[in-house]
Amino acid sequence: MKDAEPTIFPNLPLYLSRNTSKPRQPKVRIATDEKVKTSSNELPCTSGEFFDIDMNSAHLNLPSHHVTPSGTSMCSNCKKCASHVTERYVTNRKIRRQNMRMKELKDKLREALIKIKKLKQQLMVYEDLPPQLNRVLSQAKRNTHAKSNTGIRYDPEWLLDSLLIRCKSKAAYRMLRDNGYLPLPSIGTLNVKIKALRPEFGFDTTLCAGLKKKLEGFPRNERRGVLMFDEIQITKNIDYRSETRTMIGMVDFGDLTTPEQRYQEGDHALVFLFQPHMSGWVQTIGCFCAAGTTPTTVLAKLILRAIILLENSGAEVDGLVCDGASTNRAALRSFGFCGEINKICNSMTNPCDDKRSIFFFCDTPHLLKTVRNNLLKAKEFLVPSGTVKMSDYRVLLQHDLNPTTGLRAVPKLTEMHIWPNNFQKMSVRIAAQLFSNSVAAGLELYKIHVPGLKDSDATIQFTRRINDLFDLLNGRLPKDGIRADSERDKLAELEEASLWLDNWERYINTLSEPKQKQFLSRQTCHGLRITLKSALDLTTTLLTQGFPYVLTGKFCQDPLEMFFGMIRQSCGGNDHPSPNQFLYAYRLLSISNLVKPGRRASVHSHPLNILLTIQSIKPQHELCPFVPQIEVLIDDLLLYESEESDAGQERTEHDYNKSQSTDAILCYLGGYVAHKLKKFTCCSDCVRTLSAPNSFSSATTLVEIKTKGGLQLPSTLLSRLIHLLEVCFTKFSATPNTNIYNDILNAALISPELAKCGIGCEVHMTSLTARCIHFYIATRLHFLKKSINRSRASRQKKHKLSKVSKLT
Questions:
Q1: pLDDT exceeding 90 applies to what percent of the chain?
Q2: Less Cβ around it within 10 Å: N or C end of the chain?
Q3: pTM value surpassing 0.70
């Protein structure tokens, strides 16, 4: 093959035996003589001076007369022309680079637009998420951008949600946080927030201020509601609150507490809660500690104060809801409550507006339970249409149970409906299932075949009547609401039910006295009549004032029962929380209800503004706010004593030879007080007056036994002051009360021995003595409440049962 490279390999492939390509030579454009157009000023070079030029580095399109025959040199007179050509070449390179840069930027812009489109699609998905999930995502993003764990800042609403999760279960909280399922704060952060709540018994003015801020801009229909109140049982337990210097756990009705009640430990908590007619939020406004049930006179005054407080906060109270307790009825009777058939009174005049009325309601679920309990007690009800027998339900259960096939007409009917125990009698669900349409249908089915149900027509009618009555008074969904233009006239049904109850009572009054017992109890009958009348009147009033519908389920105290359930659950396995536990859970849930927007509300207030309002009104307690006041009280006493005493005269020391075990314990406690007080002074003279040299005696026996070289002995002055405070403390420790701190302090201030017990130098004697008095009283009260709570028989019994339950 021509021009093929020789090879020693036969049958070589064709592509290896082709002609080799020649190297490409650089092209130099040299204009021909025909194309050169020279003017009179452009003559060929004759100077003979040349300089070298690299043709491969720059493709210069020069005329032929500017290039030597060899093509490698240029005359010096042509430098100006060569520079112009070079600038043109550089400019073209810059243009090409900028074009390439623009292309890269366009590609990046196209990618950015695609990312923006995807992000918009993701944001559209996030907008459809519930607000709780959006809050979780925003907090997780905030935690991701934090530089360290100490730099994380939490949203106020998310902190409240975290506190609620912590109240539900501490173990679940740790699991969710440690595994990273939720961006939860640490337990220490939550404890700081809980301590900042500082809850107390009484009407909470800060919550009412936040409620007023929340209701700004709400329409009038969404500010109207009912006020409900009830009591929850708590465990007897006292706790010393250092910020307010009071004992928590004693009876506390505010300024309505009598001096005798301050020495009683509380075992019930009274809570007031407001629920609007239209929105799905509820709000507590106050709680009080009582020993047993709240006295009638005190309860009536608290109800009036709660109504006035809500009206001043922007809410409008249309009704009062409570259960059928005797004290609640007695308190309502002071406002005119009466359920007699001929002189019924179901409302009172609003104390803040004479043109509006407040209607009384008895809790419908409680009324349903009392009707069932009355039937269990009487065994039969005499009605105009016949006799309602409890035995009919027993016969129905006996014949409906079919162990062979398992087929049942009334599958929910069990023995607990017929023979309930004390706990099952408190269940609304069991009572509602007994008086249901399914039970009535079962009675009609078995009446044909079972001889014992031949005369069950009255029982069937009574069961259906109670079922329809409960549905009328327990509407919770908009579809179940009472409307003015509805096809089903529920207002007429309420009126007909009230007339049925009146006719039933008139029929019973015509019978003999023994047969009159086969009727509802007096409290149940009056409560049911008042509730029916109030539901009819209030619903009619609301419908005429612009309400599209009325939910009668809003006239029940179920939200308050749910509130109590959350408090019990937040305290773990303890069904009855202590007063301190109740206060913290109450405060936490109250702020959470205030901040979170309600369902079906047309206006949503900003939660951060509400929290800022609460924070600005809440009092900020200092570390020891009462110490300066003690300084003022004892200043004159110590000054008077220092003027009378000689500078060189030493005070008489305590006689340790007469000390016994009490003095040894006080000496040990005095060393602890001296150690603590040294942190509050930098004066060396004051420090020397707190501790004594190691002079051991009978009073220092306990210190000698327990010391390992670091325990201190109190000075003579400090020992004298501690003995005085202990004597004053012993006077009131046997009968603790809410203001026991002030009682002990007053006893110490009026003691003539206080003037001889000043500690510290002359400059700091007043301040150091005041701090010692405050610290010792607070310390002793702390240990006093621990010893009282530990010695309770109920606590010991519960601890013993808890251990037995773990062994079985």
A1: 34
A2: C
A3: yes
